[in-house]
Amino acid sequence: NDAVRVESLYKTYDNGVTALDGVSAAFASGTFTAVMGPSGSGKSTLLQCAAGLDEPTAGRVFIGGTELTATKDTARTKFRRGRVGFVFQDYNLLPSLTVEQNVLLPLRLAGKRRKDPKAILGRLGLGDRTHELPERLSGGQRQRVAVARALVTEPAVIFADEPTGALDMRSAREVLTLLRAVVHEFGRTVVMVTHDPVAAAHADSVLFLADGRLAGSLARPTAEAVAE
Ligand code: ADP
Ligand code: ADP
Question: InterPro entries of this UniProt entry (predicted)?
Fold first, then answer.
């Protein structure tokens, strides 16, 4: 029961750089996986292709039972909006929208019915921030809003690209604890790109990339083991 599966993914950009050189991996439903590797090893490209934000040059991507790589642009966008959540390093909140409006935005984009975000905002410790603008929040709070936004459509999978990259250690730990809760409490699947061994140690397992290829994996990671 894989939430995400990629088969023999290749990605060569227009400038001739090969970012993915034959990557196959499966992300089981209800697991939290960290993807690590040196800068330029293809982590972001893997995430973008697996999430349907970019198209691989060759290979296949499955989310749930659907082959994204066999789906046309507009259908892929629709699928992504309904079934995939994103968390980015720089939060990507819209500055003119309140916390609640930011959280509800993916429902609007997906054409899904509006819902009351109170429960989720309360769970993420943002219950008293509902009507604030992002500029009034700390980095950790902003990232928690982004996690709430990623959850609101109840997607099968959430992709997080360096979600703690801009946070101090304490906020980072809060966000990582939340991502674990997203998996173990909400039953979602999280795939997180990070270069931080401490962040990776919050995941159930770690995949390592080097030069666009899978270079190893680690189950039940510790920060010490990941750093080696
Ligand atoms: P990582 O996330 O591990 O740092 P990336 O996936 O961002 O790696 O990049 C992998 C390789 O692809 C790098 O050599 C990078 O310079 C190149 N690359 C990434 N995005 C693009 C792009 N849009 N156009 C051209 N080359 C790119
Ligand atoms: P595109 O312009 O490529 O069709 P969208 O308009 O769907 O992309 O999304 C615009 C930006 O919002 C992208 O950076 C995308 O990664 C992000 N995004 C898309 N869907 C969601 C979502 N459900 N939650 C949070 N961010 C999203």
Answer: AAA+_ATPase, ABC_transporter-like_ATP-bd, ABC_transporter-like_CS, ABC_transpr_LolD-like, MacB-like_ATP-bd, P-loop_NTPase
Closest CA to 167 of 185, 151, 144, 190: 144
Kindly give the confidence (pLDDT) of every residue in the chain, 228 residues in length, as a single tens digit, with 9 standing for 90 and above. 899 999 999 999 999 999 999 999 999 999 999 999 999 999 999 999 999 999 999 999 999 989 999 999 899 999 998 899 999 999 999 999 999 999 999 999 988 988 888 988 998 999 999 999 999 999 999 999 999 999 999 998 999 999 999 999 999 999 999 999 999 998 999 999 999 999 999 999 999 999 999 999 999 888 888 888
ipTM: 0.73
State which ligand 1 atom lies nearest to the alpha carbon of 42. Answer: 6
Q: Is 76 in the pocket of ligand 2 (CB under 6 A)?
A: no
Residue 39: burial class (beta carbons within 10 Å; 0-12, 13-18, 19+): exposed
Q: Looking at ligand 2, which residue's alpha carbon is closest to its atom 2?
A: 77
- The number of the ligand nearest the C-alpha atom of 145 reads 2
Q: What is the 3-state secondary structure (H, E, C) of 38-94?
A: CCCCCHHHHHHHHCCCCCCCEEEEEECCEEHHHCCHHHHHHHHHHHEEEEECCCCCC
Give the nearest ligand 2 atom to 51 CA.
16
